[in-house]
Amino acid sequence: MLKRQLLGRVYVPYVRIPEGRMVELPGRGSTYVTDTPGPTPDSPTIVLLHAVGCTGLLTWFPSIGPLSRRFRVITLDQRWHGRGIQSDEFSLVDCADDVAALVDVLGLEDVIVAGYSMGSIIAQRVWRQHPDKVGGLVLCATTDRFRSSVAEKSFHAGMEIAMLGTRGLSRSRVAVRAARTAASALDLAPDDVHDWAFAEFRSTSPWAVGQAVAALGRHHSRPWLSRIDVPTAVVVTTQDHVLPPRHQLALARRIPGATIHDIRAGHAACTLQSERFVPALLEAATTVNARRRDFSRRTQPSSSALA
């Protein structure tokens, strides 16, 4: 499917939107997955995890085509988002387990896991919970802890309380205001996005967004970041007003050997400033893949040692 995209002041001509399918994750539920082949059957695989309030395609559609020239590219809708798994509760731990289950269902090994904003938090947890499935990480617009200031603590605590009163009210005035608030936080507005993109955005309910934001507010990976032992790249959005650049840089410096790829862009760079984001993402993913191959060679026993 070809879509002409107009996002804010950024025009992305004729981006190909890949067709997806529902995939059953045994014992967990079904989610919407796209699987774009790479240039060769043995191309390395990158799994892309989306931002809060978005879908796999809405966060990553400008990146899929360029990435597929080097990688097999997988997207999925996280639970409670888009056509993702519906469950009684939202948990980042469950989201990470969903990614691992998808890796198993698709028969993948040693994948690169890339995440944007919320997706970068889940990517951290995928390594934490399933290190044997992860060959590298690309963390974009990320952080290790949301509740690091009085303002952030108040925001997340208030979101938890407020959303308790909006469950089941997805069409109410309260819910509409919540959706508009979320859109504003992501630098998105209905007039700025193509009908397709806005439909993707509306496919996640305000209640789900609130619960996801509350879960993000409880995230804290700082104690174990220094133990990440796979090649990692961090794409820093230096004009980000949602996740301060200093927090993104601090995370990168806590991960041994992480490379930093900074761009002058805001928190919605993945779509609204894709002309800056996509080249940095490609550089980051290519760097991780090269280091992943070198790491594998260093850790494999030599033929003489096996003799």
TrEMBL record:
Gene3D superfamilies: alpha/beta hydrolase. InterPro entries: AB_hydrolase_1, AB_hydrolase_fold, AB_hydrolase_sf. Residues 44-269 form the AB hydrolase-1 domain. It holds the Pfam family Abhydrolase_1. This is AB hydrolase-1 domain-containing protein.
